[in-house]
Amino acid sequence: MKYRADIDGLRAVAILPVVFYHSGIPWPSGGFIGVDVFFVISGYLITSIVADEIAKGSFSLVSFYERRARRILPALTAVVLASLAIGWFVLLPAEMKKLGQSAFATAFFLSNVYFTKTLDYFANAAEFAPLLHTWSLAVEEQFYLFFPLLLMLLPWRDRRKPLWIVIGLSVFSFGAAVLMLPIQPDWAFYLIFFRAWELGAGAILALASIHSPKNRFAREFLALAGISAILVPVFIFDATTPFPGAAALPPVVGTTVLIWVGTRGGGSIVNTLLCNRVFVWFGLISYSLYLWHWPILAFLRIILGTAHLHFATSITAVSVSIAMAWLSFRFVERPFRMHSRASLNQRAIFLTSALSLVTLIGAGLFLHASDGVPARLPAAVTAIASFADDRNPRRDDCFGVKPSDGLCSIGAPRGEDGRRDFLFWGDSHADAFMPGMDRTADLFGQTGIFAGHSACPPILYIQRVSNGQKCTAFNESVWTWLEGQRDIPLVILGARWTLSVEGTRYKGEAGGSVSLEWIGPSGKQPSPVDNAALFEAGLSATVAKIVATRRKVILLGPVPEVGRSVPEFTAREALLGWTVSSPVTRKEYEARAGKTERILEHIAEAYDDVWYIPLSDLFCDDQFCHMKDDQGTPLYFDDDHISLTAALNLLPSGLKSIFEVGQN
């Protein structure tokens, strides 16, 4: 296939938004779509090469895999080994174990599957996973492994048949992605089955073998439309955009159109600009830049203890990434790709590749089996880090369980009459409160039941845009059960209210923003429709509905958010010997949660049988909100969920008023 400089320029258009987006620089809010551009380019180039060789009768699967190994494995192996080496000195045992697992998955080109299964609600934030970016390489490698086999099996006497088969498979993949996105967004994002249509778009263009229009004006118009379809999403998409699904169509179609326009000599002004030396240079180093930038950013965030990087820090990290990419391209990529076959033959390539993969597999197995080798760290460090597991021991038994199943009783044992005194309903924050609620209720001889689900505040009529369906179903099941339990006089509601009200994470905490939507009666929808208004309207309606059943309601206030995992950064401070944290001030807490507290107070004041119980004073004095107790024990097991220690030692003094209310 003839070299096209404009495609290397297009790689630059793909990689730069990705790098800036990952670095936290705000302007390319949709920079993640660069990966989709890469998918189309890969589908086009690989299919063009394979289809041309099949047509000539010269295609060799072994030679194809050799070229892929030369292209991909040297730089990938270097990055993974470098990540393991750095991790050895700066990662805590649990983090090192996960890094080993991801290295193992990377060696089998299954890291996309691995991250689908491990990046759940309580997992370390994505920004702190040094090999997370290998998911897209896994998608491409899975395509490289199986797509040539498919092309070999297709009938080539009539070239239209392979084309229509690939079109059919791509349409099916796209439809599956659209359907899967609201159900299992992680699957739609990471897995090849739901991403294949993007690679298929490039493959379709290669198989169609149709030159772009002869008319210059038509080519210019198409090229301008194509580059716009890429760049506009870069600036208007953000982390709240449901993606990939239908939202990936503009960059995928735009990339396909740009490549198509360039198939005719001269192409367009846009294609000519893409041939600019600077664009081509970034395109040439794009693979190494993609490989190196993410671990550099991840380890920097780990060492600094925050997902949010200052602008100057981000620019420095990007500059270092570009320098490392050039060195990698010059001294790792090119020697293997350009080495003559006489001195580095096929056998040598496969042996070297096998050795590289076995090394990664062995390292991954060792780190997994040894639980991250805690012996490499001082005992004091591992002791502090272990508080990341200082959580509600009943979480697995109770979380996500419907109260109708009756599996999560808390407080005193039920009496002979089977009566329950209260329902404790909430999200993961309520789950973290549960041991303290259990102890306090037991002291007062009160029996209750817990109902909670991750990321699902106990509010009817509103839901999160990202995961609303599961929350709505769970909350409705709780309400249906409660309606049938006339003997329960008290309902306690607790959640991470502030995240719903503000819609943003605290201090750059990873996880993305939260947008709410109204699902209640249209006549009761608040105006203006923002998170705070939706939250107040939804919670007010929920409280009113409970009060209408002649029950009392307790609204538990928020606890201070920290923005970083307390056990992790405390342990890392001990490991590295410097302070990377500062306590949350009382003013910072009030600036963050003040609106939330006012809404909760306002709702409580509207009813005689509704009380608001603030919890912030348990953690905050006049100046600071404390992350550790007087003995240095973390009061949080991550960045915002209180630890078992805090739930048992701090909460009862604040929660006892609940049952004093309930008994009056």
TrEMBL record:
<dbReference type="Pfam" id="PF01757">
    <property type="entry name" value="Acyl_transf_3"/>
</dbReference>
<feature type="transmembrane region" description="Helical">
    <location>
        <begin position="221"/>
        <end position="237"/>
    </location>
</feature>
<keyword id="KW-0472">Membrane</keyword>
<keyword id="KW-0012">Acyltransferase</keyword>
<keyword id="KW-0808">Transferase</keyword>
<dbReference type="GO" id="GO:0016747">
    <property type="term" value="F:acyltransferase activity, transferring groups other than amino-acyl groups"/>
</dbReference>
<dbReference type="GO" id="GO:0016787">
    <property type="term" value="F:hydrolase activity"/>
</dbReference>
<dbReference type="Pfam" id="PF19040">
    <property type="entry name" value="SGNH"/>
</dbReference>
<protein>
    <submittedName>
        <fullName>Peptidoglycan/LPS O-acetylase OafA/YrhL, contains acyltransferase and SGNH-hydrolase domains</fullName>
    </submittedName>
</protein>
<dbReference type="InterPro" id="IPR002656">
    <property type="entry name" value="Acyl_transf_3_dom"/>
</dbReference>
<dbReference type="InterPro" id="IPR043968">
    <property type="entry name" value="SGNH"/>
</dbReference>
<feature type="domain" description="Acyltransferase 3">
    <location>
        <begin position="5"/>
        <end position="328"/>
    </location>
</feature>
<keyword id="KW-0378">Hydrolase</keyword>
<feature type="transmembrane region" description="Helical">
    <location>
        <begin position="31"/>
        <end position="51"/>
    </location>
</feature>
<feature type="transmembrane region" description="Helical">
    <location>
        <begin position="187"/>
        <end position="209"/>
    </location>
</feature>
<feature type="transmembrane region" description="Helical">
    <location>
        <begin position="72"/>
        <end position="91"/>
    </location>
</feature>
<feature type="transmembrane region" description="Helical">
    <location>
        <begin position="298"/>
        <end position="327"/>
    </location>
</feature>
<feature type="transmembrane region" description="Helical">
    <location>
        <begin position="243"/>
        <end position="262"/>
    </location>
</feature>
<feature type="transmembrane region" description="Helical">
    <location>
        <begin position="163"/>
        <end position="181"/>
    </location>
</feature>
<dbReference type="GO" id="GO:0016020">
    <property type="term" value="C:membrane"/>
</dbReference>
<feature type="domain" description="SGNH">
    <location>
        <begin position="404"/>
        <end position="650"/>
    </location>
</feature>
<dbReference type="InterPro" id="IPR050879">
    <property type="entry name" value="Acyltransferase_3"/>
</dbReference>
<feature type="transmembrane region" description="Helical">
    <location>
        <begin position="274"/>
        <end position="292"/>
    </location>
</feature>
<feature type="transmembrane region" description="Helical">
    <location>
        <begin position="348"/>
        <end position="367"/>
    </location>
</feature>
<feature type="transmembrane region" description="Helical">
    <location>
        <begin position="7"/>
        <end position="25"/>
    </location>
</feature>
<keyword id="KW-1133">Transmembrane helix</keyword>
<dbReference type="GO" id="GO:0009103">
    <property type="term" value="P:lipopolysaccharide biosynthetic process"/>
</dbReference>
<keyword id="KW-0812">Transmembrane</keyword>
